[in-house]
Predict the structure.
Amino acid sequence: MKKHLFTFLSFLVFNASFGQPKSLKVNYFYPKDSLQFNQQFEELEYNYDYKTFGKTTMIVHCESAYGTFDFIFKKQIFKLSRILEYENTSVSEVFDFKTKTWKLTDDSNPYQIATMKVVDTINYSEHNSFALIVAHDHGGIIQKAKFQDFGNVVYWPEFDYPNCSISDENKDGIPEFYLSYFGNSDGLDAKPYKQIVYTFNNKNIEKSKATSYYPSGNEGDKYYIENDENWKKLPISIQKKSQNLIKNHQLIFEKKN
């Protein structure tokens, strides 16, 4: 009897240890962690392909039984400007990348005296946004997927970094990549918040997208969400994660506005 009980318990331990997919190991690296990242992963530099995609703003590193991956977020900046608001006036500045200083624009009001305090600062960034999924493969790097959205004077795509991540919601041992970003813009068009999920399908990556639209002043406009066909085919657990990310953003957005 004891022998059979021991065999049964051993079987349970074996299944618990080997029958279930191992959890992912996920770490986040920011520009302040670039030296640590470069020392830890020799085959990939933190500012991977800087000339093509610009500076790296965040890397989500994932180690799993399915493979080792990096989710690299980048911003290619063309122009930085800001408005400094005082009590009775404002000044406009543009950043000089060569001297690393702020300078008055040609059409700006003059600077105020040093004793006057800035009441508010409005920042503008003209940039392109990129995100790359790369796989570690035998000491090298293979690019698996690329996201891009191009900004301009009146459109400013911004990653929602707290809602960008890697996880395994359906517990199959294969990571999913969650990219969330807000497309802010000038004018009265609805402002899109896009929640993109990258999933593996036979070693290839598929893109699924849910988009929520925030009304921006047009009478009769309402908040609504659209899901593409790929998103509708995702496992329920992954859909719920995507929905929660959209809900998280909505709660924060409505508090600010």
Notes: The first strand starts at residue 25 and ends at 29. DSSP finds five helices and 13 strands in the chain. The CA atoms of residues 61 and 70 lie 5 Å apart. Confidence is low (pLDDT under 50) at residues 2-18.
